[in-house]
Design brief:
The chain is mostly beta strands. The protein has a single domain, classed as Sandwich (Jelly Rolls), CATH 2.60.120.1140. It has a seven-stranded mixed β-sheet. Strands 4-7 form a two-stranded antiparallel ribbon. It is globular, with a radius of gyration of 13 Å.
Length: 116
């Protein structure tokens, strides 16, 4: 597991991030789960669009480019919705509300760190 940090503020956005690297892991994503725990998240690599079809909960989605710069923030994405971002290379999925008050915006940089 790794954690994801907002470079400008040093705030940890998620301290237990799963990384979906394989095709099967990226396709499955968060399907079949009842939610994400506080501090949890999933990073889907090689991805510029997501859906929440068949999901039971809303998420906050952050689209990132190759340099870990935020391209788009989609808070509160409800089940049965689509979201995409031209130029994104990965997507961070967080529990809905995880970004409230963080001030994350396009142009901000994030960084991955090893979790303790």
């Amino acid at each position: 597991m790794v954690k994801l940090v907002h470079s400008r503020t040093g705030r940890v956005l998620a301290d237990r991030v799963e990384i979906a690297r394989t095709t099967a892991a990226r396709m499955r994503g968060l399907l079949g789960r009842d939610g994400l725990p506080p501090g949890g998240g999933m990073l889907i690599e090689r991805c510029a669009s997501i859906h929440t079809f068949f999901m039971r909960f809303a998420i906050d989605a952050v689209f990132l480019d190759d340099d870990w710069v935020v391209r788009k923030v989609t808070p509160g994405l409800k089940p049965w919705r689509l979201a995409s971002c031209w130029g994104a290379r990965c997507v961070l999925e967080l529990p809905a509300g995880a970004l409230d008050g963080v001030g994350l915006m396009p142009g901000d940089a994030l960084r991955l760190e090893e979790s303790a």
